[in-house]
Amino acid sequence: MKDYLVRATAGEGQILAIAAQTTLLVQEAKDLHNTSPTATAALGRVLTGAALMAATLKEGQGITIRILGDGPLGSIVAVARPGSVKGYVAEPGVDLPLRSDGKLDVGRAVGRGMLYVAKDLGLKEPYNGSVPLVSGEIGEDLAYYFTASEQKPSAVGLGVLVEPGGKVGAAGGYLLQLLPGTAGGIAETLEKNIKAAGPVSRLISRGHTPEDILALLLQGFSLKIHERQPLHYACDCSRERLQDILLALGQEELQRLLEEQGGAEARCAFCSRKYRFSREEVTELLASVPGRKQEGD
């Protein structure tokens, strides 16, 4: 089954509800970055969270999530637009022993630090928000971000089931938000439903669709589905974009690459595609570096 998400409201419009299946796109990310099981779970959760958040945006808008923890995984980045997501983890090979309950130890691999969110809403400046990581488990951290930074009481469930051979068996997540003016008692009912439903990765591995998951989470509420949206992993890198990154290195680094390598090679962090720049191309880049002194100056 292809990856997709469902966007809905419930409780006569008092609850925003989004659920997604992301198994295939998380597997693609694992293949692209050759991630260990722990890194696969961490990156997969961030990718899924970004896809859920992007579903609240309009076409052409985008969101970037950066997790900067002090754990061995280092930074985790995901960039999403409605329907597509890409991302990477700084240390994809890091793996840790399982927790005492047999689950992957994502929290310890991420560690403590900060969660940063940047929303590109098509305005002059992006909207930026940040909160401390509360657990490193990603779902709890995003829920805290919504509540503390955007003042939107939320529940976020994210899960990635990694099979013994490293294959992604199931991945997905949900986002539930209480909209302004929500009646009392709704949060308590949602908490009970969330506890009864259990981990989202287990639900998906048992064949539950995003629609099924929302039905479980929103038992007792009227549910209205507004949209079903396909999801996929997509990188939009190009030679031009990587060229801009090389330019940002500055004159000294470009000169060093020219002398030591006779050119330059740049790799896209999101899809690992490599771009080779010849001696002539790097020489042209050097000539265009802003503020570069010309001979005889």
UniProtKB/TrEMBL annotation:
This is 33 kDa chaperonin. Belongs to the HSP33 family. It is found in: Cytoplasm. PANTHER family: 33 KDA CHAPERONIN. InterPro entries: Heat_shock_Hsp33, Heat_shock_Hsp33_C, Heat_shock_Hsp33_N. Coiled coil: none annotated. The gene is hslO. Under oxidizing conditions two disulfide bonds are formed involving the reactive cysteines. Under reducing conditions zinc is bound to the reactive cysteines and the protein is inactive. It comes from Neomoorella stamsii. GO terms for biological process: protein refolding. The keyword Zinc applies. One of its GO terms (molecular function) is unfolded protein binding. Redox regulated molecular chaperone. Protects both thermally unfolding and oxidatively damaged proteins from irreversible aggregation. Plays an important role in the bacterial defense system toward oxidative stress.
